[in-house]
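Structure tokens please, single chain.
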Amino acid sequence: MRIILIGNLPESLVNFRGPLIEQMVRLGHEVVACSPPAAQEVQVKLQALGAAYRPVPLSRAGMNPFHDLKSLFALFRLFRQERPDLVLTYTIKPIVYGSLGASLAGIPRIASIITGLGFSFSAGAGRKTLVNRLVCLLYRYGLKRNQVVFFQNPDDRQLFQTLGLVKLPSRSVLINGSGVDLERYSIAPMPKKTQFLLVARLIREKGIREYCEAAKRVKAKYPQVCFRLVGMLDKNPEAIRREEIEAWVAQGSVEFLGYLPDVRPAIADTSIYVLPSFYREGTPRSTLEAMAMGRAVITTDAPGCRETVVEGRNGFLVPTQNTDALVRAMERFILEPDLIRTMGRESRRLAEDKFDVRKVNRVILENLGLLDTGKEYPAPQPVHSTMRG
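Here you go.
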């Protein structure tokens, strides 16, 4: 089978979908990976996985109708040229325009992975902003042509069904995030000092300010404890400004390590991983990586995040945007240091049982019919030029 896989970030094709591509190729399928133009290094890595690469003009953010129509036309033309048997997309623009373009081109099988709802849904399902309404409309028309829609947490699946974005529950499949490579992210010895770490996009909804405020309070009481922050400065409207980060560093609250292409050394040098997100995550990959390396977790009792912690077993759940609760959870580890090792071991067990990338990918492959060649799929519904109905 010829498969086209589309994402909005070139690096994510390797970092998040690399094991899936590799498994598809091993099963004898031909994979064409697509994204906005990728660096030569990414293209070489994709080639090593056995995939071909095709650039497509997709913008990661913004809603310029002329740019989006250009993306839709380019994808339609790509599908007409490549004639894939299956198009698999993830993240909103590839899902919407990839699905519509594939349906227009007559591609027999279309599927998508919802990897989180992000900014437009971060204030909750009842938010009635223009952006939220437009995003819902785009999802409704894009996913209408999908035979399978994968969700990374039950909250997202329930929300999409409630809003009528996926009308047939039989087409909704729940998976345990993107999974994590348990060999690449192996258990690492604990550092001697108590150290906390947050790895995230530097935007407000990831809980960056709550983390740094908690670090300031805890460090004033326990100066020997270390707090680190890893991430790349972002252009998002909700991005944390460089001046804020420099102020936190200057006052001694946190150490800022910037963007790291390989986060394993930073995780190995930490005791507890923290993600105080209220971003409407799918299932945070950074948390899974920390769990696989045997680290206890503090995260929020929010969609996607709550899937990674069994309260009191491998970490603690705190309410969103609640710095006081975050401080209390941090203090538990400082005052009861044995929890660091016992909960770290439980994190690894949970990663092995639930989040092993091989198990996650097997569910995807089975539901796409890539393991069972006899599986039948309904034909995609036709696209009407009025975009109605």
